[in-house]
Amino acid sequence: MTRSFLKSALIPAALLASVPAILHAQAADPAPAAAQAGSYKVETSHTRVGFSVMHFGFSEWYGEFADVTGSLSIDPAKIENTKLAVSIPVATVSTTNATLDEELVSADWFDAEGYPTITFVSTKVTRTGERTADVTGNLTFHGVTKPVTLHASFNAGGVNPMSKAYTLGFNATGTITRSDFGVKNYVPAVGDEVTLRISAAFEKGE
């Protein structure tokens, strides 16, 4: 094997290894104050709403929803004026177990036919740190509306090098009590407290 062949093989590998760092540097500014104020929409393909519950006290059981849509109005200088509204299709629930997914969308559990969407509409936003805020709003799930607080953290803002759209990214966590929303099957053997883990991207409108 010649030295020239090794050189030509190694250079592309080195370039490929550096691509994630290059794209991140071009795309994202991690400083919340640098984020652009304005109106945004959920970037559906890179937004997920995850949930977990304890299963008979032995293990944590996970699932997620996809195809999330919604809007965000934000000004980093006036974070308390932020407005958020999202809609989640119940039928997109996925646990990697097809049989269980069919059970969850049935009338015995989430009842996707009777209550096809989960919605969250913010009512109050409170800054809790340089990059964090509590977002309180009304969560409507399974035909019941209850106040819920999400603990949000800012990831970054910048031009997505793939879509060319200015994008903001956030993570958020929270908890709900599923029996409060009328989903009571197997409580307490299967946990009543549900942990939410959300990863969301928002694209700025033109």
UniProtKB/TrEMBL annotation:
InterPro entries associated with the record: Lipid/polyisoprenoid-bd_YceI, TTHA0802/YceI-like_sf
Keywords: Signal
Classification via Pfam families: YceI
Signal peptide: 1-27
Domain Lipid/polyisoprenoid-binding YceI-like intervals: 39-203
Protein name: YceI family protein
Organism: Novosphingobium mangrovi
